[in-house]
Amino acid sequence: MATTDVLQQIMEIMEQKELLAQHILELTKQQAYFLNSSSQSEQYDLTYLETLLHKRQEYMEHVNELDKNLLIFKQSGTSFSLEEKEHDISQIFIQAQKIDHDNLGKLKAAMSGLSARMKSLQMGKASTNTYEKKKSQVQGFFVDKKK
Fold first, then answer.
1. What's the CA gap between 27 and 6, in Å, rounded?
2. Nearest Cα residue to 22 out of 11, 33, 30
């Protein structure tokens, strides 16, 4: 394979990787926006968040595949230097990682808030059961047998 063909393939892989990095960053920003906004439909919210996470995971797996392809080129002895492009891509991933770290903190805070709400609900249920015991009702039917 000619050197120009190899370099062309490497450039295409790097372009795809940069595009995927941009998509990952955009999805991470959407997650941050979602976590910052409060909406009424929690079930819809959870499915939307799951969709964002699933898409992001797919993009990350595709980036891993591209990295494997680049590694094959590097191991084959092909010399290439795309430091500027690699630096740009790494900066995009650093931005996404910072936003993702903030998102993780927000999710942990939301989880602790939910667990505190659940504890208070359980305490309220226990006190309700203590003070408002249901009266047991004796109910029965008498069936007389004819002799």
1. 32
2. 30
CA distance 98 to 66: 23
How many whole angstroms separate alpha carbon 113 and alpha carbon 104? 14
CA–CA separation, 3 vs 79, rounded Å? 9
Q: CB within 8 A of 74, min separation 6: which ones?
A: 80
Q: How many other β-carbons are positioned within 10 Å of the β-carbon of residue 3?
A: 10
Exposed, middle or buried: residue 18 (CB in 10 Å: 0-12, 13-18, 19+)?
middle
pLDDT (tens place) for every residue of the chain, 147 residues total: 566 777 788 888 888 989 999 999 999 998 888 888 765 455 457 788 889 889 999 999 999 998 888 887 777 766 666 777 888 888 888 999 999 999 888 888 878 887 888 888 888 777 776 666 666 666 766 677 776
E strand intervals along 2-146: none
Determine contact, residues 100/28, Cβ cutoff 8 Å: yes
Q: Residue 96 and residue 109: Cα distance in Å, rounded?
A: 20
